[in-house]
Amino acid sequence: MSRRWRIETALSSLLRERGIATLDELITILVMGKEPSLSQQVVEALLNNETYFFRDRTPFDMLRQTVLPRLTEVRGTSKRLRIWSAGCSTGQEAYSLAMMFAEDPLRWNGWSIDIVGSDVSENVVNRARSGIYTQFEVQRGLGVTQMIRWFEETDAGWRAIEALRKNVRFQVHNILEPPPHPGAGQFDIVLCRNVLLYLNADKKKLAFDRLASALAPDGLLMLGAGETVIGQTNKLVADREWRGLYRQERRDPVPPTERRAANG
Predict the structure, then answer these.
(1) What residues does the CheR-type methyltransferase domain cover (predicted)?
(2) Which of 62, 137, 138, 202 is most open to solvent, judged by the fewest CB atoms within 10 Å of its CB?
């Protein structure tokens, strides 16, 4: 009953706009398939797009201080990293990653950093591409120095500067579908935080299968603090060294030569 009430609340504006009296009537219209655009509107209305820059700082600190330095060693030959922010909402997570690399230019000089942000909602992806945020949004998670350095005030709001926007590309994508392509090879890091919480067991298993297939042999998956692969999939296991990170299930560690071959 509680869940139905929440759904009705989330869809109330759409029901009024479309002149639909009840949730049951909406379901009937969707099942009949006479209004394809309505399905996407329902998805948009039900999504929880809560996000902000450097959300839950600890994961970003772990990436900056330990994970990325390790990856510079195993990717030193190719000097290329591929990162996927899955369920990126309005883009703050992807831009946070871009800022993290841009703020350490000496370490990443000469590297190719490919950051892909994706979300099932076309509306939020379009917002992410614009890089425009309200005063409230741009202040959440950013210090004054970062805000001034990476954003410029416009009539439309605070916009990420071009030097930041050009380092991230966004696309509409459903986590249950085959993963996006990073250009070549697979992703070294996939962030999929607080995206799978509302999926049932079957859909969650399929999502984990998709995420596992997106990872390089020694790639890492980061989930939200309340999420885990344990009991959900046999394709991924907890990383032995880093809490909250997961990797493909393998019997033996990936030899350095295989890492280079997979990501060269």
Answers:
(1) 1-251
(2) 202
